[in-house]
Design a protein that fits this description.
239 residues, alpha/beta, Glycerol-3-phosphate (1)-acyltransferase, seven-stranded mixed beta sheet, 7 strands, 42% helix
Length: 239
């Protein structure tokens, strides 16, 4: 919370302007291109990162496919995760979030702008409807982020189990799966500190459909988790 207050304080003039622009774009999404809408998010994110004493150290950007229609699968450490990904990724993307986030001010507008979906993991029918919609969007060339742990780990750079169901949209769309290793993202908003920090974002080589087509979703989940954990062990200086 302290770092969020720092970001707001250092952007007292920018915040009202950004909020009005975000709400306008979110309410008139059909008037703007994907690039224009994503530029708004990147502008807000860039201001937050700079004013929050945060450095984003991105690796493996060259692993992101040149053609759209893929899905990112990062580990989940906290609210800053999406900001780190947006800041380090230039291509428009969308997100699948928990239903609890759908009605939160700011997040609600961001979800609308990204054409994201809120999923209720307790409602199987609703979850399947979201999977079908996301599959269609990915096949049409939209890129998505989904946190396969389902909730943030609350244990620093240690991961929870990845849920196999999170990979159903990817397998149905037969799209590239890009594991993303986030390191120290939790330090942004979950430590109560405003000290300078560096958040690492590692885009790992994609798993193409030919590689995972014969695997069950639980096996894909375990393999994506393994690759992320391996990267964290290699680059986490505090480990």
């Amino acid at each position: 919370m302290k770092r969020i207050l720092l970001m707001v304080f250092r952007n007292l003039i920018f915040v009202p302007f950004a909020w009005i622009k975000l709400c306008w774009y979110a309410g008139h999404v059909e008037r703007y291109t994907e690039e224009q809408k994503y530029d708004i998010l990147r502008m807000i994110t860039d201001h937050a990162v700079r004013s929050g004493n945060i450095t984003i150290d991105a690796h493996g950007v060259e692993n992101i496919p040149s053609e759209s229609g893929y899905m990112f699968y990062p580990n989940h450490q906290g609210m800053f995760d999406m900001l780190a990904i947006i800041h380090s990724n230039e291509k428009p993307l969308s997100a699948i979030v928990k239903k609890e986030a759908a009605g939160v001010p700011f997040l609600k507008q961001v979800i609308a702008l990204m054409k994201g979906f809120a999923i209720d993991r307790e409602d199987i029918r609703q979850s399947m409807e979201v999977i079908i919609k996301v599959t269609k969007e990915v096949k049409a060339g939209r890129n998505y982020v989904i946190f396969a742990e389902g909730t943030r780990s609350r244990n620093g750079n240690h991961l929870l189990e990845f849920k196999g169901g999170s990979f159903k949209a990817a397998t149905k769309a037969k799209c590239p799966i890009i594991p993303v290793a986030l390191i120290d993202s939790y330090k942004a908003f979950d430590t109560g500190s405003i000290a300078q920090i560096t958040v690492q974002v590692h885009y790992l080589p994609p798993m193409l459909y030919e590689e995972y087509k014969d695997m069950k979703t639980v096996e894909i989940a375990a393999e994506v988790k393994r690759r992320i954990e391996e990267t964290i062990r290699e680059y986490d200086t505090a480990a």
